[in-house]
Amino acid sequence: MTTEPAEGLVEADTRPATSKARLRLWLRLLKATKHVEAELRERLRVDFDTTLPRFDVMAALYRAEAGLKMSELSGVLRVSNGNVTGIVDRLVNDGLIVRVPVDNDRRATTVRLTQAGREEFARMAERHESWVNELLSDVPLAEIASVAAALDRVAKHRSERETHADGE
Amino acid sequence: MTTEPAEGLVEADTRPATSKARLRLWLRLLKATKHVEAELRERLRVDFDTTLPRFDVMAALYRAEAGLKMSELSGVLRVSNGNVTGIVDRLVNDGLIVRVPVDNDRRATTVRLTQAGREEFARMAERHESWVNELLSDVPLAEIASVAAALDRVAKHRSERETHADGE
Q1: DSSP per residue over chain B, as a string?
Q2: Nearest chain A CA: its distance from B59 CA (Å)
Q3: pLDDT mean values, one per 10 residues, chain A (168 residues)
Q4: Does B25 contact A136 at a Cβ distance shorter than 8 Å?
C-alpha cells in the first residue's frame, strides 16, 4: 500500500533524508504526546485528586462491566507504568471498585467498579474528553482522518525483528 | 489559522462528534507513541544494554558539547521519568561522561560526554535512527509533512488554563 521502495532497494543517497525525516516525525510525535499527557495528568490531579494510571484502570473497568482479572488490568497498566496492586487497593479503600471472587478458580479475583465508581468515572471521562478536545483543538477536523490513519500504520507496524525472528 | 469556530460558538449538536473524533485521535496518538517507545526501549536494552532515559541524557550531552548543568539535565529527563543523579553516576562509572566543576559557582557542576561517550552515543544514535525509520516506514514520506504539522500544533497548543489563568 506504500509507494516507497522496499528497504534494501532504497538508494544510498536518498536513505539519509528519508530516515532523518522519519526521525524528526518521531520526535514530534513524542513531544506532542508528552505534552498532552502531562496536561491530562496535571488536570486529573487538580480537578479529581487522581492519577493517570488510576484513571486508566477505571476506564478499563468501565468498559468491562463484568469486571477484569488482575492480570488483565496489568496488561492495561503496562502502558501507564503503574503498580496495579497498589492502585486497586486504593480504589477499593475509596469504595470505587470491589474485588469479586471467581467461582471456579479459588486464586483468581475479578475487580469491577461499584455504582459510585461508575458515576465518578463518568464525571472524569466527560471532563477528560473536553480537555482532549481543547488540547487537540488546533488540529483541524479535516486533517484528523489522515493523521489518524498514519498513526494506525505506526501502531500496527510489526517489527522486522518479530517478522524475521529466525534471521541473523 | 483554523477553520473551526471558536469554542463557545460550536453548536451543541456538533460538539460531541468533534470531541469524540479528537478523543479517538488522542488514543491513537498515545498508542502509536507507546508502541514505538516500547520497541526502542527493548532494542536499546538488547543491543546496547542501556535504557531510554540513559540514551536521552547522552543525546542531550551530545548536542551540548560544552556540557550541561544537572538542573538542565533534569529538564531533559522530566520527559523520560528517569532519576538523573543515578543515571549520571552510572555513566560516570562507565567512563562515558565526566563531571566538570563550574569556575564561578562552587556548588554547580557541569557534566559532559567523554570521547568514549561521544563515540558510543554516535553508534547508538545511528542505530536508533534506523530503528525509527523502520518503525515509521508505513507512514508514506508524502504524508510526513502534514502529520508533523498537526503534531506541532498539538505540542504548541497553550492550555486555556494558562492563557486565562485569572478566569473561573
Answers
A1: ---SPPGGGS-TTTHHHHHHHHHHHHHHHHHHHHHHHHHHHHHHHHHHS--HHHHHHHHHHHH-TT-EEHHHHHHHHHHHT--HHHHHHHHHHTTSEEEEEETTEEEEEEEEE-HHHHHHHHHHHHHHHHHHHHHTTTS-HHHHHHHHHHHHHHHHPPPHHHHTTT--
A2: 12
A3: 44 68 92 92 95 93 91 73 82 95 78 96 97 91 86 82 55
A4: yes
